[in-house]
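Fig. S4 source data, part A: sequence.
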Amino acid sequence: MAQGKITYEGLQGAILQMINHAIATGGLFFVVGMIYERTHTRMIKDYSGIAKKVPFLTFFFFTFALSSIGFPSTGGFVGELLVIIGAIKASKIIGIITAAGAILSAGYMLYLALRVFFGPEKHSEKLKHIEDINKVEFFVLLCLAIFVFAIGIYPKPFMEIIRGGIDFVWSKLQIQ
């Protein structure tokens, strides 16, 4: 049931996406920062093929990247699906554009990740002694990853938390 161009599902998805974005993007920034601190370079071409040297960093980067693109079983999937459903209910054209944007962003993110982690292995001095994560970094990344999968596999508790705010906004929209 749409109110103007706003749908209940769209509101749910938007709020869930904001939560997921904070977690996944925070995780991505953390991983990228860790890689930068180890190499002191920001050039993508300098990183090619580092997956073998830093498997845990690679795993966590892909966990957060897949959540960012809305891969099933991650929080990004649930939020993105609700946003697309809401957009389709509001307007089929907007729904198609929204889905196309999600596909394009997924392609870009995967292209970036593949170039950095799985391209031809570089034998530069900067990557010669690159180390994988330590125990503290592992713990922080694991905590974020748990939330990524918790939202994706069992979103009900998160939806219950945001329901009060959504119901309040929805009731105000119904009056107007």
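Fig. S4 source data, part B ends here. Residues 2-166 form one domain.
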